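REQUEST ID: PR-0412
SUBMITTED BY: lab tech R.K.
PRIORITY: routine
TASK: structure prediction, single protein chain
INPUT:
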Amino acid sequence: MRYVGQTQLRGTADPVSYEDAPGPPVLLLAPALVATFLGLDIALGHDLGLLFGLGFVTVCVGLGLLAEPDDFFLAAVLPPLMMLASMLVVGIAMPSAFGFPSASAVEGVIAGFAHHSWALGLGYVVCLVMLGVRGYLMRLQRL
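STATUS: complete
OUTPUT:
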């Protein structure tokens, strides 16, 4: 959509072509899926458990498999940020979901990271390995 009086500089892309794309769909869907697993796990069991951990690892696998090549950096940075955001939300809203009823928000976030470090480690490693293998295979195809 062009506005009246809008000029385009030489060598720049047409701004209209970027308006239709809301962003990389996988990078937008991954935090939404993690939030869904977070909500489901708390709603079903009143604490964070195995469902959230397995859901997080699954989302990281999907992120590593489906990210666009231009978005590899963002896909590599996203898993720790998703885990941090999840732990902050639960630590502030419901610190007892980590298994310590009298925990403060800071203690809840630290306990959440401690309890779900396996999910963060496994999901992050799998995502990085998949992105690395995909990048290597793309370089081989160019040769």
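NOTES: Helices lie at 15-19, 25-45, 50-66, 72-93, 105-115, 117-142.
REVIEWED BY: pending
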